[in-house]
Amino acid sequence: MEIPKTMQAMVLEKQKEPLVLVELPVPQPEADQVLIRVHACGICRTDLHVADGDLTEPKLPLILGHEIVGTIVKIGENVKQFTVGDRIGVPWLGYTCGVCSFCNKGKENLCDQSLFTGYTIDGGFAEYTVAHQQYVFKLPDMYKDAEAAPLLCAGLIGFRSYSMIGENVENLGIYGFGGAAHIIAQVAVYEGKKVYAFTRPGDIQAQDFAKGLGAVWAGDSNELPPEKLDAAIIFAPVGSLIPAALKATIKGGVVVCGGIHMSDIPSFGYSLLWEERVIRSVANLMRSDGESFMRIAPKVPVKTEVTTFPLSQANEAMDSLRKGKINGAAVLIMFEN
What we know:
Oligomer: single chain
Number of strands: 18
Distance between the termini: 13 Å
Number of domains: 2
């Protein structure tokens, strides 16, 4: 296939302003990079945090998007593990240095020199993008492009959050039932856990959606579940949910904060934390998370609920997600595969 010289992209020129549809040169891959013809790119809540100014250090101008599915159309001279024509996925973690203390300890997600797709390097709200060969994944064949896109962040960060809840968890609470929650709930149900879903107060549609995915109970985030939770994962960026989740957990329970941004956490009495309850955050992802999740997803099998939009409607799609009008995930479609 002949590669064009230019492409369309939705560009964030300034935070707190709409994306702009522009014509840009198609990027060229460096020695360790691949050039990807983007078929689909999911819209993550992190994209909203970047666009809305909650995350304050993006490169600007910037092409958002870190749930990228596409086909390799050109490879750099050092690329050995992929060939032209391979379908791959590109996640949030775009590069690590490999030599800092965190990388040397097997904690590349905390690398001091890390780069992030759609934040410090251009992402997938475009017809073409480049990515480093070490930070992309082959995707399970069973998923169509739009279905696969949410696996690349909602799935991966959700899976990392899920892996931190600890052992012997029977009752799992999930706060904020969007892209990540609807994926990881299926994994939890597959592994025999009882899922309790917490949504925005009064969001009956989201609660019904959660029950349809196997949740044994779904209710408002300001309610207590009918049984105490062994652990909880918070995907909604709402700090007040931390004391709410602590109140709902048993002694020794774990509350995992699965988002990159959260509003301020209100003060709460020490009695909520006492009895060896734990609060922990999740930062970025490890490539091993991606490899593990891509193995388990087809076994469940994880089914993603997506609403698709053309690239030119990225602003409308983001606004729908921002207002809670999307069940599951929003996905931009660039090229039909």
